[in-house]
Amino acid sequence: MRVLIAARAEGADAELAQALGEFGVDWQVEWKADPAAAGSGSAFDAADVVVADAHAPGGVDLLQAARLRNPRAVRILLLDEGEEPNALRALENTHRFMRRPILADELVAAVENVVELQELLDAPDLRETIGRIGALPPPPRLYLELHRKLEDPRTTARTVTALIAQDPVTAAKVLRLCNSAYFAFSRKVADIRSAVVRIGYDSIRRLVLAGEIFSLQPPPGIDRDALSRRGLVASRLASRLLQGPSADLAATAAVVAEVGMLLPGVRIPNADGTGTVSRGPHYAEAGAYLLGLWGLPMPIVEAVANQREPSRSHFRGFWIGGAVHVATSLASGYPLDHAYLANLGLSGRVPQWERMAEELAAMPGDPLELTALD
């Protein structure tokens, strides 16, 4: 395992090497104080793990470059104790966050967890099931283009409005959602520009994604309106369970959490844990695979894959995966993983979350039925 750390060693290199040796892992660790220099060397393209300091100039840029040039590498961002990532770009280019100083056990756990996820999504039965589908659902073109535009801080509301207006069907669905109980505005939103200004870029991006995803034709037996309603309720709930950019990423993951149900041959267990006739891969893993093919950020892919088994992600704390588990469970009637929540000291929050989910689910239904506009 080749590990490239773009951060000041300050004596930690020898200590980390000794600790890794005690753990019995034979890793080649190279330190570079300058992220720019780290990204220009041959070690960058050959690295299995890239670690960058969030406070070093170019640290997040290095992880973005790794995502594009060396996508199989595990990407880790170093933060101060108690610090949260303050930019969506940092979240989207990172597999894991770690606190400084680097501890060997946390580094090993983070790397092994990401590798386990990659192996899960490379499982032969999953690839075989997806490969048998004659025509995969197309990527959410408008969402991905909007996502790219919004990475540029110079993008204006006029640019976003013009982009959405190019797809009249999706634009109509976004307007319908803006005027639904989902947002409960006192005045009618009459045009896309008003919607962009009123609800903001992050919410507009999620609504565009919802409009495109829920336009896909489901296999027999799948109620598309019910799917859209659950996704929107889960998204709204997930956004309330976290703060900052993490809340937006959790809300986005929740709205697409059941996208795997749109694929034929997947296994969709009932709420009591029993399965359907299909012996195919679980819809959560199939959905995560599809989202990975579409190029959605890894935190979203991981949260979707582990939505029914949140403890499979060994992340220490309640983050995107935990929020998506709670939101999708309460929106869809699946049981919560109480052992997982108890381990995080969150069991006492469950009644409050259940009340929030009930309030969101009680919103009037008709305005959310996006398929009426097909």
Please identify, by name, the CATH architecture of the largest domain.
Orthogonal Bundle
Count of helical stretches: 18
The CATH topology annotation of the largest domain reads as: Hypothetical protein af1432
Give the distance, in angstroms, between the N- and C-terminal Cα atoms.
50 Å
Biggest sheet strand line-up: 2-1-3-4-5
The Rg value, from CA coordinates, equals 21 Å
The stretches of 5 or more residues where confidence is low (pLDDT under 50) are 366-374
- The number of distinct structural domains comes to 2
Secondary-structure-based class equals: alpha/beta
Average predicted confidence as pLDDT: 86
Please outline the major beta sheet: 5 strands, parallel
Q: Tell me what portion of residues adopts beta-strand conformation.
A: 5-15%
Secondary structure: helix percent: 40-55%
Secondary-structure element string: EHEHHEHEHEHHHHHHHHHHHHH
**Strand tally, please?**
5
CATH superfamily of the largest domain: Hypothetical protein af1432
Q: What is the CATH class name of the largest domain?
A: Mainly Alpha
General form: globular
List the helices and strands and how they pair.
Blueprint (H helix, E strand, L loop, with lengths): L1 E5 L5 H12 L4 E5 L2 H6 L1 H5 L2 E5 L5 H11 L4 E6 L8 H5 L3 E4 L4 H18 L2 H9 L8 H10 L6 H9 L2 H11 L13 H22 L10 H18 L3 H11 L27 H12 L3 H8 L14 H13 L5 H6 L6 H12 L13
Parallel strand pairs: 1-2, 1-3, 3-4, 4-5
Pfam families: HDOD (PF08668)
InterPro entries: CheY-like_superfamily (IPR011006), HDOD (IPR013976), RNase_Y/CdgJ (IPR052340), Sig_transdc_resp-reg_put (IPR014626), Sig_transdc_resp-reg_receiver (IPR001789)
Keywords: Phosphoprotein
